[in-house]
Amino acid sequence: MRNFNRFIPGEEVGAVAQWDFSAVDTASILLAAQADSRQEAAEQARDDAMRQEGYAQGFAQAQAQAVLETQHRIAEFTRNQGDEAAQRLAAVFAATSLQLQQSEQAIAQGVLELACEVARQVLRQELSVNPNVLQPAVREALGMLLADSKSAVVRMNPLDLEVLEEPLRAEFSNLSLTLLADARVDRGGCLVESAGTVVDASVEKRWTRAVATLGLSVPWQEADDEP
Questions:
Q1: 137-149, pLDDT tens digit by residue?
Q2: Distance (Å, rounded) from C-alpha 150 to C-alpha 194?
Q3: Per DSSP, which regions of the chain are E strands?
Q4: pTM as predicted
Q5: What does the pLDDT look like over 63-90, one tens digit per residue?
Q6: Alpha-helix runs per DSSP H in 132-216
Q7: For residue 45, what are the contacts with CB-CB under 8 A and spacing of at least 6?
Q8: Among residues 143, 174, 180, which one has the least CA distance to residue 161?
Q9: DSSP label at 211?
């Protein structure tokens, strides 16, 4: 065991320097200050990192919210545009359908009127060359009147009477027929009277009834027709 109480002779003592305890205190203070500085720097770095992380999280959340809001607005805009487009398309379709129906009705009306005009011209031609087509009309009129009577007066155009007098008397030999020529009756028509009742079997009346069944009002005689 070393003896620290031993007296040290002068010749054993080398260079001597005075020990200053303030140097130790200053070093301790510097070390402590450096440690504090490093701790503060670490805490500052940690705080900065936390702030940066918070900023990043906030930015990410804000960005995600902005994306969702943008998507919502785009979807709403698209939906509204789609609804408006559908409404416009439905309106156009309805208008087109209405126009098509009107066009179809106009075409059908035109076809009927054209058919009536063709039939009128054909019938006029037929009546002018074949008076025999009047016989069914006379037969029908007599059938309507002679249920309780055996006599009748038949008025027809003189040209028709010339051709039909003998055939009519032969067909209705059991009846008392008075056949009269009347220039006021158009060719192809007749007026039959029996017991005070008159059946108008003129071509004009029969024509009017026929075209009325088609929903038309086409006159038999046009203004430019020859009398």
A1: 888 888 777 666 6
A2: 9
A3: 151-156, 176-181, 190-194, 197-200
A4: 0.48
A5: 788 778 888 787 777 777 777 777 887 8
A6: 135-145, 158-171, 203-212
A7: none
A8: 180
A9: H
